[in-house]
Inverse folding.
């Protein structure tokens, strides 16, 4: 592929709901532009951008992929993004470096949940958009119905620039409302004809709407329209371009990717209507002074590039995808990672098309490339010239929505699991790994259950690590209801020096959240001073290990008020064990209860689904605290709910709302567990302890 200047490069994120034919449409565009010599199929696992084995097996996009092509003396960098909510991190990454978005909508299903989510993300970035109504050859496909749905959801800036000729199986072409010509396809060959008679009236009306929208984009065009009552084709094209770039017009096109119908016109529309990389105005900060640095897509300017995606490979290492905003990134050079203040050595650069890599000596301003084996660089980092440091804003990835405990299947897997998880976390910023020392579990967090299942499969396939995913343990706590006293006695005489330690303790509850307090009230030397810390150590250990169900005992005061010792046989360990025995007996007499963590939950839901969401929360033992209408058709429901009830809430909410709901959860406090549930939790804890002991034996 030849080198293009920034004014001839378009970088377009292809987004939309899962199953709308995005990957097939990208494949059709690659084939139409002769970037590939044969058109692959998703069902066969032969498409350019769905090349990962897991994508081939599941038959949908999981990882964003780059698909560059050449059309009309320009280069189009298409970024094929997933359409399922579990992989929204990939969408966020590509939208961060795209100059525009192509929103793909299914002609049968219309506007769907991820259509709205992708639209909102593009809106937040201020990206110009085109909408393509795809799969018009399918049964029940309707361009008119889909157009009405788009207008109802996104307003009057939705304006068709094409109309389909025919429908469903009879689809045979599209009418261009700017030129008023029909582009018909028969036997794989395209020809340009006059608008069919049955569409002339509809096309004339749609063109008039298009002219009105285009005229409003410039004052001069408004005057021209008022004087002449219409616009020329050139004026219409000019007004349309200005309106799209300003975000006042979102053109709607018609296509069938599988039949390559309307694909050539779609490519031409992207070149004609979407902004070039040269028009991007990006600013960063000087990493030391904090001063703003404005970047231009100029090859003569100092280098500034953003890494927007990382792929982990056990053999090649990290493969970093980047977009160059200014200057030129050259192979075999040294650059500054301004995010981490580290110098990186850049090896061979590549231009990617799916999994295919083409070596290139340079990647100029405005273009996208990849490089392997950067030592320090992660997703969101800025690479720049060492003598002109600049740091671009990092990518704002969404927080994880669900957590699972991950366990190795064997000792060999355990030895490799930590490093492999670290590699996957480097690759995917929405995949988090942490070690819960209290629960003795490795916990992984992601955007959904499918996300975590795929990560587990990637551990097996890429790193040879077999793992199990389980619901994480809930960090229950134990405490006491009342006050009690008990003796702890550890006395052993087996010949020779024995063990002797006796102590008396009192235990009493403290306010919730107060923690643990140890009080020394020994007087008269009943226990020598050197053994009092031993008693405290034994008490703390017993409380940390739990008494009722193996969870830490909290919010108690333990007072050591008496004891006995032996001049010869008393020892540190004897008083540790005596302290543990005393506090266990005292806590049991005081009445042990189980506490559970309570979360503050804020659930954003469409108003028409509020009843279902509140009913589900009530079934989860939640306390509804209030509802806050947002003025956009959604309401935030605030509640407090036990953590144990919402371990799978991301999946539950998605099921109830069809993916239209979202939530945040933060820890609030601990509360007593209802008695019938506490019995079950304690029984489960005892069973797990017995299984662990038998396994060790």
């Amino acid at each position: 592929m030849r080198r293009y200047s920034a004014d001839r490069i378009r970088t377009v994120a292809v987004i939309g709901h899962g199953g709308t034919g995005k990957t097939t449409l990208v494949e059709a565009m690659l084939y139409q532009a002769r970037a590939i010599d044969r058109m692959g199929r998703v069902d066969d696992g032969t498409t350019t951008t769905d090349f990962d084995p897991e994508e081939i097996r599941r038959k949908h996009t999981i990882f964003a992929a780059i698909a560059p092509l050449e059309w009309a003396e320009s280069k189009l960098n298409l970024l094929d993004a997933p359409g399922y909510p579990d992989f929204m991190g990939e969408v966020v990454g590509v939208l961060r470096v795209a100059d525009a978005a192509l929103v793909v909508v299914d002609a049968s299903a219309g506007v769907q949940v991820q259509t709205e989510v992708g639209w909102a993300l593009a809106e937040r970035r201020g990206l110009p958009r085109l909408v393509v109504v795809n799969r018009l050859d399918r049964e029940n496909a309707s361009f008119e119905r889909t157009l009405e749905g788009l207008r109802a959801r996104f307003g009057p800036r939705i304006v068709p620039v094409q109309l389909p000729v025919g429908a469903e199986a009879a689809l045979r072409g599209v009418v261009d409302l700017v030129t008023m010509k029909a582009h018909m396809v028969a036997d794989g060959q395209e020809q340009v004809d006059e608008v069919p008679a049955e569409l002339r009236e509809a096309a004339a009306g749609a063109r008039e709407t298009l002219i009105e929208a285009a005229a409003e984009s410039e004052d001069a065009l408004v005057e021209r329209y008022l004087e002449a009552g219409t616009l020329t084709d050139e004026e219409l094209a000019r007004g349309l371009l200005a309106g799209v770039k300003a975000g006042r017009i979102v053109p709607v096109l018609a296509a069938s990717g599988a039949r390559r119908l309307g694909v050539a016109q779609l490519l031409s529309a992207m070149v004609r209507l979407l902004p070039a990389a040269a028009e991007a105005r990006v600013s960063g900060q000087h990493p030391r002074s904090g001063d703003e640095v404005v970047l231009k897509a100029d090859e003569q300017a100092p280098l500034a590039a953003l890494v927007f995606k990382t792929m982990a490979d056990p053999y090649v290492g990290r493969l970093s995808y980047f977009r160059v905003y200014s200057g030129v990134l050259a192979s075999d050079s040294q650059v500054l990672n301004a995010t981490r203040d580290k110098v990186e050595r850049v090896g061979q650069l590549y231009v990617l098309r799916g999994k295919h890599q083409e070596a290139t000596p340079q990647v100029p301003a405005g273009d996208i490339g990849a490089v392997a084996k950067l030592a320090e660089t992660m997703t969101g980092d800025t690479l720049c010239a060492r003598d002109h440091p600049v740091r671009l804003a990092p990518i704002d990835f969404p927080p994880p929505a669900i957590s699972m405990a991950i366990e190795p299947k064997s000792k060999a897997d355990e030895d490799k699991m930590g490093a492999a998880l670290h590699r996957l976390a480097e690759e995917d910023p929405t995949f988090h790994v942490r070690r819960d020392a209290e629960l003795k579990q490795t916990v992984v967090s992601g955007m959904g259950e499918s996300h975590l299942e795929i990560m587990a499969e990637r551990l097996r396939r890429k790193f040879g690590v077999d793992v199990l995913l389980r619901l994480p343990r809930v960090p229950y706590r134990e405490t006491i209801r009342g006050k009690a006293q008990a003796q702890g006695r550890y006395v052993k005489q087996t010949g020779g020096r024995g063990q002797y330690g006796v102590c008396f303790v009192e235990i009493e509850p403290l306010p919730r959240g107060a923690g643990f307090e140890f009080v020394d009230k020994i007087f008269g030397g009943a226990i020598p001073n050197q053994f009092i810390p031993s008693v405290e150590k034994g008490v703390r250990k017993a409380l940390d290990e739990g008494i009722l169900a193996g969870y830490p005992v909290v919010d108690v005061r333990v007072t050591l008020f008496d004891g006995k010792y032996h001049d010869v046989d008393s020892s540190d360990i004897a008083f540790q064990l005596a302290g543990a025995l005393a506090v266990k007996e005292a806590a049991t007499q005081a009445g042990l209860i189980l506490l559970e963590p309570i979360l503050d939950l804020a659930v954003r839901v469409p108003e028409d689904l509020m009843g279902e969401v509140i009913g589900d929360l009530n079934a989860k033992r939640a306390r509804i605290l209030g509802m806050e209408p947002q003025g956009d058709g959604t309401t935030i429901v605030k509640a407090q709910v036990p953590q144990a009830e919402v371990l799978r809430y991301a999946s539950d909410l998605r099921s109830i709302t069809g993916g239209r709901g979202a939530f945040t959860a933060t820890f609030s406090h601990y509360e007593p567990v209802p008695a019938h549930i506490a019995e079950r939790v304690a029984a489960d804890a005892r069973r797990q302890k017995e299984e662990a002991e038998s396994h060790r034996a």
Notes: The mean pLDDT is 92. The two ends are 65 Å apart (CA to CA). Residues 675-696 form the longest helix (22 residues). The first strand starts at residue 9 and ends at 16.
